[in-house]
Q: What sequence folds into this?
């Protein structure tokens, strides 16, 4: 049995709480957040504390809090030599105060309020100070997911950059597509299937092989027509930048 | 029964051939391409012609050929007053020679060789000169898909621009993610789940609500760290451009 305490009340805290509470081998001993927010509707108020000095004993303390809070909160913890982990993609293991054993428990996924996550296929990047903690974090992640990877802070930060491209920036392209449809009174739903297929395709072929479109074909007439169609300056700029980048990558300079 | 002739031997021609041949209400009477290429391994060579003058009678001639070939090939067709359609997202119905009845049969999807398409959920944008042809194209699309939309050439060209953003440009972001992983010897597969979730999420919430990441949070420390991590100039440029665009859109100017 692994005893867990979750600190934080944001999206990751809530998703981890929901996932752990149905795992027989895991007990969520307590949760902490400053406002005493319940992590789900069924949680008992007495399982939440708003006072770090009231934290119980546990095998692992999960800091599911904002990047900038990891260091100060880890410093304020009123104990030493226990296992304290953060869940951040971009932060080094070193931001946790070294008075405790340190670790990282990073789920490589995008979390939203109100959208359930099936953790089974979510890669967990774990890291720790020592082999005993590594084994514990590996077990803990293994209860949730089939994909557990020991990853150093440096490699994790690289993965995080790549994740920003394929998730955050991709979603911004979706939002541009949404804006274009909205401007012309076209339901965005018409693009849903295309978006899904675009994402699923890269499981079957590398993205370089999946590239299509006017830029790749060097179809200057369509490119010009598209630039004339776009009415928003930032959309035109993205269109030109991507077109140039695709043509440079695949050897067809404008 | 609708008699169809497919002209072309590219991805769309092959995918339409494969899809139509199992539809009882559709007969593929013949195919045409300049080199006599079979559209699948089971096709009989005598069902292909390389000579436009040998084209048989059919209810609809589908020009599944490159955008620039639509006009010249439609001009070379040795008959008049039949229904001739193209499958292009970006081209107007008007590029087809008006000696025949004209139409558009555009499947809003990304096609690749060797990756099967389930057309059932693929939106078909159809357009025609007259109500009789419109009904025929609507039936034909309806045999393949549950989603058939009558769409004007103007609206289709808008959808096509939006599709370039959510498909072509998105795939380029995936390829940047792939390059970053490869440079640092990280398997790209670790990002597959995130990419899938990013795409599926927009079915449950508009992309503006799904936006996350350092740019949205105005997390300048992570943004700076990421820019320092990236070693390729064009990657840095994309990172800065997207970060600025996201911050402008959501009201947090750099």
A:
């Amino acid at each position: 049995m692994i005893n867990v305490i979750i600190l934080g009340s944001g999206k990751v805290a809530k998703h981890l709480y929901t996932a752990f509470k149905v795992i027989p081998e895991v007990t969520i001993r307590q949760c902490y957040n400053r406002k005493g927010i319940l992590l789900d509707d069924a949680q008992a108020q007495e399982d939440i504390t708003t006072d770090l000095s009231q934290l119980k004993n546990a095998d692992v303390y999960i800091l599911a809090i904002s990047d900038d809070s990891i260091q100060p909160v880890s410093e304020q913890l009123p104990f030493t030599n226990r296992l304290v982990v953060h869940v951040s993609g971009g932060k080094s293991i070193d931001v946790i105060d070294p008075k405790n054993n340190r670790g990282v428990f990073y789920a490589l996924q995008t979390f939203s309020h109100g959208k359930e996550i099936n953790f089974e296929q979510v890669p967990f990047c774990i890291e720790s100070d020592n082999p005993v903690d590594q084994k514990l974090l590996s077990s803990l992640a293994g209860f949730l997911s089939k994909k557990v990877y020991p990853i150093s802070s440096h490699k994790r930060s690289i993965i995080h950059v790549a994740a920003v491209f394929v998730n955050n920036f991709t979603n911004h392209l979706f939002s541009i597509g949404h804006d274009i449809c909205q401007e012309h009174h076209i339901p965005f739903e018409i693009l849903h299937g295309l978006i899904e297929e675009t994402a699923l395709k890269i499981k079957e072929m590398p993205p370089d092989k999946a590239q299509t479109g006017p830029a790749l074909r060097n179809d200057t007439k369509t490119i010009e027509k598209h630039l004339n169609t776009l009415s928003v300056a930032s959309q035109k700029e993205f269109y030109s930048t991507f077109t140039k980048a695709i043509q440079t990558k695949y050897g067809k300079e404008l």
